[in-house]
Amino acid sequence: MSIASNLCEWLARRWLTLFFMVVFLVFWLGGFSGLAHSQADPGRFEVRSASTDFRSGVCFLNALVEYRLSSDARNALDSGVTLAIQLDVEVLERRRFWLDLEDASLEQLYQLERDALSERYIVRNLNSGEQLSFATLFSALNYLGRINDLPVIDVALLDNDEQYDMRIRVGLNTEDFPGPLRFLSFMRRKWSLKSDWYRWELERS
After folding, report:
1. Residue 32 half-sphere exposure, CB side, CA atoms within 13 Å?
2. Spatial separation of the C-alpha atoms in residues 128 and 78, rounded to whole Å
3. C-alpha–C-alpha distance, residues 135 and 74, integer Å
4. C-alpha span between 115 and 78 (Å, rounded)
5. Beta-bridge partner residues of 84
6. Cα–Cα nearest to 144, from 81, 80, 68, 59
7. Which of 4, 151, 166, 198 has the fewest CB atoms within 10 Å, measured from its CB?
8. How does pLDDT run across 69-111, given as a tens digit for each residue?
């Protein structure tokens, strides 16, 4: 009877020790996972400033954009995935008693990839066909973020009696991702990199 009682007590202590070990391991792994998640960069796309310039009957866009890729996007880029970045430009006709009317729009598309052989970053302007290479990701994103003299609309298409605004935003276009990555982009918000609209009055001199 004494042996059986001691055995039960020993087993109880072993199970209790095992239980606390499992609980500690679960909390430790959860904390480690949370720490890794907190250290991951979620990324940020932001239009810092924008303005327009009218020359020779054409409206040109100048803008400064901050591109900071998320940790997931950088890892995908370094693994050979081509990232597609889209600049949306809209000219809006102001209305007093109704929603503003989209008078014109432009989609400027870029591709960003890392060449594994040269270890350089390639930027392609899909609208113009221009292609440039950069030694670092920082310099490639810095180039993308400086928009200079981008033609948007012919001034003749604007009504002199109406007031117009222009707005722009930038985003990571996940539609061009391979199938598995496109699915992952819907499941993980860190892929959803898109700036807010930046809007200002279109002043014609």
Report:
1. 6
2. 25
3. 15
4. 9
5. 111
6. 68
7. 4
8. 988 889 888 888 889 999 999 998 887 655 455 567 899 999 9
Calpha distance 205→31 (Å, rounded): 59
Residue type, 47: V
CA distances from 166 to 9, 25, 54, 91, 138 (A): 78, 55, 13, 5, 28
- How many beta carbons lie within 10 A of that of residue 49, not counting itself? 10
CB 47 within 8 A of CB 85: no
Classify residue 8 as exposed, middle or buried by CB count within 10 Å of its CB (0-12, 13-18, 19+).
exposed
Is 0.90 topped by the overall pTM? no
Q: Is the pLDDT of residue 25 over 80?
A: no
Q: For the residues of 135-186, what is the DSSP string, one character each? A: SSHHHHHHHHTEEEEEEEEEGGGS-TTS-EEEEEEEEE-GGGS-HHHHHHHH
For residue 182 the two structure tokens come to 């496109």
Using the 8-state DSSP alphabet, how is residue 26 labeled?
Answer: H
Give CA–CA dist 48/169, Å, rounded. 10
d(Cα 155, Cα 144) in Å, to the nearest integer?
26
Give which of 152, 99, 143, 98 is closest to 125, Cα–Cα. Answer: 143
Token look-up 């928009």 returns 147
